[in-house]
Write a sequence for this structure.
């Protein structure tokens, strides 16, 4: 999966132990003076410094417990992966520039000003080694939501032009083309027509009015088109008046992952405007974790008022359909284990929905030792899967997941996040693992009862 | 003015004033930060209850984390409870508080006080060793951590020097050796002065921080 970064070529020739300390590898976007970069980072960071973030910044007792919840620390034992340490320059900046005793810290120089070199060094910690999965937020005895602070720090990093380049490029393409993987409206339309034709399913596009607006993630559109077909089959089965919209179909939001609030806003507004235009009562989000965070919990705040429609993750939509009898399922006499997408479950509060669906499918659900809100992340969330130089670290984190899933001995493995699924596919190929991650959505579509 | 009079008078009131004003300033510094309205449709509106539940919930770890954090959690409880017993359960301390506020309560038995003192010394010793040797704690620790440790253990050390009578007997209001008592009191006052500025403020910030996350997570229907 790794590409070689031309500016930092991988050395395959030198003897293994001759390399003492690899050069810190970081990317920069644009050419501008360091002072300007730093100023932009601090301004963007301070701009978002609300009350909750200030409470968190003040409250850390340096107990180090958060390290024990982070797959990157647990798998490597490297203390730099301690979640709260990943925020150190921003804690430093907060204390010096924003906090209640900032004047004292500045006057006595008790906290030094943050430098660009620090931010460059921390790029690896804020991006490569954090999936924003929020497991650390579950262990903190002070209740600090560390993951929310990481997202905020990424705003500062983006403003400074200090984002891993692969992630930046994907986010920029998403902003420019409307989709990070090239699913432009034209490509999307062609793909929908192809799928409708090939699979003989109705996939309504741009209906002027519809009860349900369905959205997809770019990974589904480009890599898992079966998910699009599965969605269409289920909506037909349940008898919904639904549509897709070329104005708003792409739920993936790399503005959120990379730390560009303006790009995040643009992507979000496209979906909202599309739903408003077709007078949708429900907007269904795809099997995508961060899309859920971006629209379900942040969308209305981008919009500036409550959304005039409900936002449901596809697993919630399926659960509702099962509960109100619109979706009727055949029994699946197999054992199954479920991987909870962090943003939907731990960070999103929809842990129960997939389990309602799995119960209706009649599978023997074998939970992993840590599941639901305490699950281990797949290792590829938060944009990490896009960062090639982070591959080795990500594979280490993935080993936890493999161990726990294997321990269940379940026949099937499913999730409800295409990004997790992609990370699993990559991990499977890397480790030559005999377990393939499936989709809850597709499992439902395969077992609809007529 | 003798040293004890200074410690019981101007120094005590000044340190209390700095503590109260410092805490107020720190809280004001936090609460003056803006709050953006959250327009997302809440899964639960019981956010105040969620804040309270979180304050209680994070008093212990989720089961899955306990194996890796058991010793540090056990130790933290041991010396925090020990400190509470020493500060509020020792007869001379109760007499001191009674002189200041008029409030009093029964003292703990002498043996329990000794156990508490032991827990504090062992616990704080362990904390320091962990900070100096554990790679994660070593990396995270800064002046605040070590100075907070110092101002916490200092009154314990100076307190040991003034124990001269049976533990469950009342001490005279005017001690026979006033200088060690004055030093003990001054060491406590140092702690009071430092409390609002450093990490000892977790004594009150724990409730604020847990409360915020508890409310936010409850709103989303997420587990605490």
């Amino acid at each position: 999966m790794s590409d070689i970064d031309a500016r930092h070529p991988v050395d395959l020739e030198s003897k293994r132990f001759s390399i003492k300390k690899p050069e810190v590898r970081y990317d920069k976007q644009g050419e501008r003076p360091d002072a300007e970069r730093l100023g932009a980072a601090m301004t963007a960071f301070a701009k978002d410094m609300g009350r909750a973030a200030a409470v968190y910044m003040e409250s850390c007792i340096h107990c180090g417990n958060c390290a024990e919840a982070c797959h990157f620390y647990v798998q490597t034992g490297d203390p730099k992966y301690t979640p709260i340490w990943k925020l150190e320059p921003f804690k430093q900046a907060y204390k010096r520039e924003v906090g209640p005793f900032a004047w004292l810290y500045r006057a006595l120089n008790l906290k030094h000003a943050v430098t660009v070199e620090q931010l460059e060094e921390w790029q690896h910690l804020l991006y490569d080694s954090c999936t924003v999965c929020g497991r650390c937020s579950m262990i903190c005895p002070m209740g600090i939501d560390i993951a929310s602070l990481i997202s905020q720090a990424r705003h500062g990093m983006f403003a400074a032009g200090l984002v891993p380049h692969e992630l930046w490029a994907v986010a920029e393409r998403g902003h420019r083309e409307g989709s990070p993987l090239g699913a432009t409206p034209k490509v999307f339309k062609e793909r929908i027509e192809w799928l409708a034709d090939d699979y003989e399913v109705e996939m309504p596009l741009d209906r002027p009015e519809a009860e349900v607006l369905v959205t997809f993630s770019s990974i589904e559109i480009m890599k898992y088109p079966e998910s699009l077909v599965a969605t269409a089959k289920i909506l037909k089965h349940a008898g919904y008046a639904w549509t897709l919209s070329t104005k708003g179909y792409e739920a993936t939001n790399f503005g959120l992952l990379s730390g560009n609030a303006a790009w995040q806003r643009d992507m979000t507004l496209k979906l909202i405007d599309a739903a408003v235009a077709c007078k949708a009562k429900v907007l269904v989000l795809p099997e995508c974790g961060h899309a859920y965070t971006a629209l379900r919990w942040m969308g209305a705040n981008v919009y500036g008022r409550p959304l005039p429609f409900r936002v449901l993750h596809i697993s919630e939509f399926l659960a509702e359909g099962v509960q109100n009898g619109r979706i009727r399922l055949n029994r699946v006499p197999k054992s199954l284990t479920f991987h909870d997408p962090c943003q939907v479950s731990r960070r999103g509060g929809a842990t129960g929905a997939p389990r309602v669906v799995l119960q209706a499918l009649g599978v023997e659900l074998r939970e992993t030792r840590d599941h639901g809100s305490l699950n281990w992340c797949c290792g590829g969330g938060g944009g990490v899967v896009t960062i090639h130089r982070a591959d080795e670290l990500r594979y280490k984190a993935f080993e936890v997941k493999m161990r726990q899933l294997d321990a269940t001995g379940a026949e099937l493995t499913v999730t409800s996040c295409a990004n997790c699924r992609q990370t699993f596919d990559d991990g499977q190929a890397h480790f030559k693992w005999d377990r393939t991650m499936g989709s809850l959505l597709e499992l439902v579509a395969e077992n609809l009862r007529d | 003015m003798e040293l004890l009079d200074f410690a019981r008078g101007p120094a005590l009131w000044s340190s209390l004033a700095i503590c109260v004003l410092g805490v107020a300033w720190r809280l004001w510094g936090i609460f003056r930060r803006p709050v953006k309205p959250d327009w997302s449709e809440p899964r639960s509106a019981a956010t105040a209850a969620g804040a309270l539940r979180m304050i209680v919930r994070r008093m212990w770890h989720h089961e899955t984390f306990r194996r890796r954090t058991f010793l540090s959690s056990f130790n933290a409880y041991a010396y925090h409870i020990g400190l509470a017993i020493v500060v509020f359960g020792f007869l001379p301390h109760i007499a001191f508080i009674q002189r200041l506020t008029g409030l009093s309560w029964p003292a703990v038995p002498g043996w329990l006080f000794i156990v508490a003192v032991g827990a504090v010394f062992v616990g704080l010793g362990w904390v320091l060793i962990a900070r100096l040797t554990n790679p994660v704690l070593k990396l995270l620790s800064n002046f605040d951590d070590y100075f907070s440790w110092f101002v916490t253990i200092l009154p314990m050390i100076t307190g040991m020097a003034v124990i001269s009578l049976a533990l469950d007997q009342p001490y005279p209001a005017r001690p026979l050796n006033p200088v060690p008592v004055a030093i003990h009191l001054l060491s406590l006052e140092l702690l009071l002065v430092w409390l609002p500025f450093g990490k000892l403020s977790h004594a009150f910030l724990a409730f604020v921080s847990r409360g915020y996350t508890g409310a936010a997570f409850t709103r989303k229907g997420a587990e605490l």
